[in-house]
Specification:
single chain, about 220 residues, alpha/beta, Trna Endonuclease, Chain: A, domain 1, five-stranded mixed β-sheet, four-stranded mixed β-sheet, 9 strands, disordered C terminus, NERD domain-containing protein, NERD
Length: about 220
């Protein structure tokens, strides 16, 4: 009887410790919603771009590419046009715990508000946003329907990604610190599709969409490697 009582008390103590570690998320929290949503996002995008510049092979980078999605005007943080395809990045320098699956419209950011309490912010699924961006890119490059396009939702290193295991070959949910070797693995497993000339022409055509409301110059032809 005494042994069972000791076991029960030990179990309660361990469970209390688990709850304390689980719910005390102050070290992962930001001081305001403004900081959560906007505070370090540009810095995160700049760091991601710096990593992409060191990727092997020929490539061109587009920053803050504006496009029109089904939900209206939108912006892609970083696009890498590479020999192996198009890599579109959405960067989020969020704190807390990030959860959500690729099909859900909104993901959840959980932040600590006290030792045993927390609150949640909802933000639009970055993979759905990237999917809309890729659809616009394909629309502007109709003669390249076979072009491989990849989505990367890149989060700052100060959060916990509860949905990181949902990544696959064309879609990644990763921390910023994982971007370098993730790109290395994706590029290594792909074959070269695009020549330098094609990459440069795609770059010019996509860049032109930000300057012309009517879209791209459809008369130009692309050459493939």
């Amino acid at each position: 009887m005494v042994s069972w009582l000791v076991f029960l008390l030990a179990a309660i103590y361990l469970y209390h410790g688990y709850l304390s570690r689980r719910m005390d998320r102050r070290k992962l929290s930001h001081s305001s919603y403004y900081e959560v949503a906007y505070g370090g996002e540009k810095k995160c995008a700049d760091q991601a771009a710096a990593i992409l510049k060191d990727v092997g092979g020929y490539g061109r980078l587009l920053f803050n590419w504006h496009y029109i999605s089904e939900n209206g005007p939108a912006l892609a943080d970083v696009i890498l046009l590479h020999e192996t395809g198009v890599y579109v990045l959405e960067t989020k320098d969020y704190g807390g715990w990030i959860s959500g699956n690729p099909q859900e419209e909104y993901w959840v950011q959980t932040l600590g508000a006290g030792k045993y309490t927390s609150y949640q912010n909802y933000f639009y699924n970055p993979l759905l946003k990237l999917s809309g961006c890729i659809a616009c890119i394909r629309q502007e490059l109709p003669e390249m329907k076979w072009l491989p396009c990849y989505s990367l939702a890149v989060f700052g290193n100060g959060c916990e990604l509860e949905n990181a295991g949902l990544s696959d070959g064309r879609m990644k949910i990763i921390h910023l610190k994982q971007l370098s070797y993730t790109m290395y693995g994706m590029i290594r497993s792909s074959r070269t599709f695009l020549s330098r000339q094609v990459i440069d022409e795609i770059y010019e055509r996509l860049e032109k969409t930000e300057m012309q409301e009517s879209g791209l110059d459809k008369s130009r032809r692309l050459y493939y490697s």
